[in-house]
């Protein structure tokens, strides 16, 4: 069974950092592009960042560019989202998604989805 599992969420103060992980089980991520999305309470899920299977191209939402970095370590079957300079508005459940054909950038896309990890930015 193909599964994606996110981890690394938690409570952090404004200005702090967190690193989220998206690990795959049941398949290898080597030829999958990966996207990170988030959904805040009462809001639609939105695109955050994505990376091609090769790792050669990355994409970011304007709201996180310069603060978040997506990377992958295929040997560990894991993709990361390093989040720095966190703001209260970054509070959301963060999801990763995988696809072999397209780079996941659409919040309603028919990708493989994980269950999400909560990130709360608050003092």
- Please report the number of helical segments: 0
Strand content: over 45%
Question: Care to count the β-strands?
Answer: 11
Category by helix and strand content: mainly beta
Rg over CA atoms, rounded to whole Å, is: 13 Å
Fraction of residues in H or I helices: under 10%
Q: Uncertain runs with pLDDT below 50, 5 residues or more?
A: none
This entry's quaternary arrangement is single chain
Key traits:
single chain; 123 residues; mainly beta; 7-stranded mixed sheet; 4-stranded antiparallel sheet
Structure notes:
It is a single chain. This protein has about 120 residues and is mainly β. It is about 0% helix and about 50% strand. Strands 2, 4, 5, 6, 9, 10 and 11 form a 7-stranded mixed beta sheet that branches. It has a 4-stranded antiparallel beta sheet with strand order 1-3-8-7, with no helix packed on it. The radius of gyration is 13 Å and the shape is globular.
Task: Provide a concise account of the structure shown.
The chain is mainly beta and 123 residues long. The protein has strands at residues 3-7, 10-12, 18-25, 33-39, 46-51, 58-60, 68-73, 78-83, 92-99, 112-113, 117-121.
Itemize the secondary structure elements and their pairings.
Elements: E1 3-7, E2 10-12, E3 18-25, E4 33-39, E5 46-51, E6 58-60, E7 68-73, E8 78-83, E9 92-99, E10 112-113, E11 117-121
Parallel strand pairs: 2-11
Antiparallel strand pairs: 1-3, 3-8, 4-5, 4-9, 5-6, 7-8, 9-10, 9-11
């Amino acid at each position: 069974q193909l599964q994606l599992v996110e981890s690394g969420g938690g409570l952090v103060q404004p200005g702090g950092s967190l690193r989220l992980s998206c690990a795959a089980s049941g398949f290898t991520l080597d030829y999958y592009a990966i996207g990170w999305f988030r959904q805040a309470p009462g809001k639609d899920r939105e695109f955050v960042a994505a990376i091609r299977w090769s790792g050669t191209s990355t994409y970011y939402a304007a709201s996180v560019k310069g603060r978040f970095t997506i990377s992958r370590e295929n040997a560990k079957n894991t993709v990361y989202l390093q989040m720095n300079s966190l703001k209260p508005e970054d509070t959301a459940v963060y999801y990763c998604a995988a696809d072999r054909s397209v780079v996941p950038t659409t919040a309603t896309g028919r990708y493989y989805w994980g269950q999400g990890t909560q990130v709360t930015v608050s003092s």
